[in-house]
Design goal:
heterodimer; A: 114 residues; mainly alpha; 3 helical TM bundles of succinate and fumarate reductases; B: 255 residues; alpha+beta; Ubiquitin-like (UB roll); 2 domains; five-stranded mixed sheet; two-stranded antiparallel ribbon; 30% helix; elongated
Chain lengths: 114, 255
């Protein structure tokens, strides 16, 4: 993939994350902040399908943005063909693993398995 | 190793002279024999028009001819005498001691360049990256035949790139760039500014080729817009701005 395409995704995920995380934070203010973080309220959030979709989107956006940021930092830290390939594949694996684990939590809670 | 001496002593006394003296600290390092660099100190007299290069050449002439320094034109045209002067990348021939406003002038080789000896550095990487971006007009019709006219440009078209054509390849921007110090594969502000110089030239048809060259993992996207390249350029080139314009092309904001 061209670096400019990767960076377009990087900037896009950043902008989208800012929007969705803002909505997420505003939702905390619908009740008292402490109340919104109580066990029942958190579970209720997970069981609301629109909210769960938003959480999943935030997870994907932040994982893509964050791991690409990590890739950039690591590429600037050290150079070399093997190292750079390892970094590129490593961050993709890390990204998939994080999204997988986060999605598992969201799906299990949504299905009442927690 | 410190040597303190005075050039003034050797000159005939001049009652009209308004000269002052300054401590010139010169970094000495020979990679073939030294483990680390050390400073030699010389007290030199200067007039308000004396440049750092002239002070170094005075030291070479009167005290230590082995000081290694690269220079040629002495008028900020050849780009040979770039060095760190009091910690900032500058051309020695273009920096007056009186403008530094300090009693101590410290000269060191430029950062981000391998040292040949003392103040002279290797320019291979600079020239390689410069060459990589194809610093010439790409146009199939560029070979003029008889009865043909040269390419015409309006003043507005010339304005698009003319400041970038002032680059003298002195390497000060690459020396000031923080990314260059950690990323040994980074193409660097000098080459990127030159890429923009040709991309913005209305006579050039190689825009896509150049954008492809700089659009890689150690290309234009590794610039963090510190802006130090533009601050140190002795010719008023603004590589940071050129880099942002190039990004505009790659992001689809410019065509």
């Amino acid at each position: 993939m061209k670096e400019s395409t990767i960076m377009k995704i990087h900037y896009g995920t950043a902008l989208a994350s800012v929007g969705l995380v803002a909505v997420h934070i505003l939702m905390r203010l619908t009740t008292g902040f402490a109340d919104s973080l109580s066990y029942e309220n958190v579970l209720a959030n997970y069981r609301s399908v629109p909210y769960v979709i938003m959480l999943e989107l935030i997870l994907i956006l932040l994982a893509v943005h964050g791991f690409n940021g990590l890739r950039v930092i690591l590429l600037e830290l050290k150079q070399g063909r093997v190292y750079e390939k390892a970094v590129s594949y490593g961050v993709v694996i890390g990204m998939i693993a994080l999204i997988g684990y986060g999605s598992r939590t969201i799906i299990m809670t949504n299905m009442g398995m927690v | 190793m410190a040597q303190v001496s005075s050039i003034e002593d050797e000159n005939a006394p001049n009652l009209l002279s308004t000269s002052k003296s300054v401590l010139l600290r010169i970094s000495r390092f020979n990679p073939e024999s030294d483990d680390s660099s050390k400073f030699m100190e010389f007290t030199v007299s200067y007039e308000k028009w004396t440049t750092v290069l002239e002070a170094i050449l005075d030291v070479k002439k009167h005290h230590d001819h082995s000081v290694a320094v690269r220079y040629s034109c002495r008028q900020a045209t050849c780009g040979s005498c770039g060095m760190l002067i009091n910690g900032k990348p500058r051309l020695a021939c273009f920096t007056k001691i009186s403008e530094l406003d300090s009693n101590v002038v410290t000269v060191e080789p430029m950062n981000n360049f391998p040292v040949i000896r003392d103040l002279a550095v290797k320019f291979e990487r600079l020239f390689e990256t410069h060459q990589k971006i194809k610093p010439y007009l790409i146009n199939e019709n560029s070979e003029l035949e008889s009865d043909e006219r040269e390419f015409l440009q309006s003043p507005k078209e010339v304005e698009q790139y003319i400041q970038f054509a002032n680059c003298i390849k002195c390497g000060l921007c690459n020396s000031a760039c923080p990314t260059m110090s950690t990323d040994s594969s980074f193409v660097g502000p000098q080459a990127l500014a030159q890429a923009y110089r040709y991309v913005a030239d209305s006579r050039d048809k190689g825009k896509d080729t150049r954008l492809d060259i700089i659009d890689e993992s150690h290309g234009i996207w590794r610039c963090h817009f510190a802006g130090s390249c533009s601050q140190v350029c002795p010719k008023g080139v603004d590589p940071a701005m050129g880099i942002q314009f190039l990004r505009g092309y790659l992001l689809g904001f410019r065509s």
